[in-house]
Structure to design on (143 residues):
């Protein structure tokens, strides 16, 4: 059971899962915009064109008819609010992951300090035979 939970934790911490969750949430919010557009604006206009009569056109000017711009605008505002909240959540998760990586990186650096040149005391890559800073040659590769 412990191994299963560890695997699940690794799965959730991948960036792909976060991207997929954002896509599903934004897609659901965008669906409401499309639904509001078709239900409240396009369908009444189609009924006018298909022979619904002149009284349906008066909805563009007189409130209380089939065309409802307010519902469409409300759906757009709801979408923007949902998108903003998702943005803030993703930003917070990314910041927490960066902090976790920094803390984990400091622990790794404390365990394995980078090798340094014995002459100029600058950091060199593991396995280097010469210092890239002062060009000093090492008797054995840097460890």
């Amino acid at each position: 059971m412990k191994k299963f939970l560890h695997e699940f934790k690794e799965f959730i911490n991948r960036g792909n899962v976060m991207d997929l969750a954002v896509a599903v949430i934004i897609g659901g919010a965008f669906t409401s915009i499309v639904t509001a557009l078709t239900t409240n604006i396009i369908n009444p206009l189609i009924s006018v064109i298909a022979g619904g009569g002149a009284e349906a056109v008066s909805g563009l000017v007189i409130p209380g008819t089939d065309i409802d711009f307010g519902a469409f605008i409300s759906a757009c505002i709801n979408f923007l609010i949902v998108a903003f909240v998702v943005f803030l959540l993703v930003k917070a998760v990314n910041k927490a992951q960066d902090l976790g990586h920094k803390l984990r990186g400091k622990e790794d650096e404390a365990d394995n300090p980078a090798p340094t040149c014995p002459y100029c005391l600058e950091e060199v890559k593991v396995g280097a035979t010469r210092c890239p800073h002062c060009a000093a040659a090492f008797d054995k590769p840097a460890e």
